[in-house]
Specification:
seven-stranded mixed beta sheet, alpha/beta, Rossmann fold, globular
Length: 144
Amino acid sequence: MLNLKEDDNALCEVLTQAKTIAVVGHSDKRDRTSYQIAQFLRQKSYTVYAVNPLIKEIDGQPSYASLQELPEPVDIVNVFRRSEYLSEIVDEAISINAKTVWTQLGIWHQPSAQKAIDAGLNMVMDACIKIEYLRLRVSSARNV
């Protein structure tokens, strides 16, 4: 089982090569972590798609009900949903050929992670994408 959280070089590569990120569980409330991190990712020049079936749009951008509805392929599926939802999210990520599933702090489900890895996806669990981005100083690679 390979959780890329333990491999700084792999994490840096994932963050440097990614261009599009789907934020599953993106909130439209500015005080929520998912909203703040999605905004951070947008500021770092990623294309960010909100995936939340309960919201139609966030700050004028459409919110999609599922990963299958996204208008283009995504590199990272960043998950802000509880661990019990991870299995179905991984299934969706596999079905759209996402490259990486990244779950935020506190989100951990070993069988889902194994399923993603078995399907050839990168898996990062229990790690904040913003914290890792800043810790690894990825910004220099993004602003080329």
